[in-house]
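Re: [ENG-882] Designed sequences occasionally contain unexpected residues at chain ends

Forwarding the minimal case from QA. Structure tokens:
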């Protein structure tokens, strides 16, 4: 979101004059309608809504944020599935091997072709 804010601020510099104002939802029925339509799966019989599909991101930069996490109940599962690492205690290791059969790790890789 920070990249989009920076991009917006750059674009606003190109306008000689602009104003940002808050419009209450009650006064902006189209925005309210679109918000409700976007969150529903119901087909509607309304006036057409024109959608512009972007073929490229509005922000060209790519960033990856590292998330710090504290160990929790999932940590031994992930260590076993990803690194084949078992707990040192024999009973805990046996229990983990039995329980881990119910889990899998899905890794999503997003690649943008230039």
């Amino acid at each position: 979101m920070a990249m989009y804010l920076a991009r917006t601020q750059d674009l606003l510099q190109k306008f000689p004059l602009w104003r940002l104002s808050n419009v209450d939802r009650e006064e902006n029925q189209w925005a309210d309608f679109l918000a409700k339509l976007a969150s529903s799966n119901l087909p509607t019989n309304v006036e057409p809504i024109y959608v512009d599909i972007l073929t490229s991101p509005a922000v060209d930069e790519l960033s990856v944020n590292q998330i710090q996490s504290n160990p929790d109940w999932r940590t031994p599962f992930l260590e076993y599935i990803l690194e084949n690492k078992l707990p040192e205690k024999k009973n805990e290791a046996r229990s983990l091997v039995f329980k881990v059969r119910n889990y899998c790790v899905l890794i999503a890789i997003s690649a943008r072709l230039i």
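QA comment: On inspection the terminal residues look reasonable. The CA atoms of residues 62 and 112 lie 9 Å apart. Proposing we downgrade this to a documentation issue.
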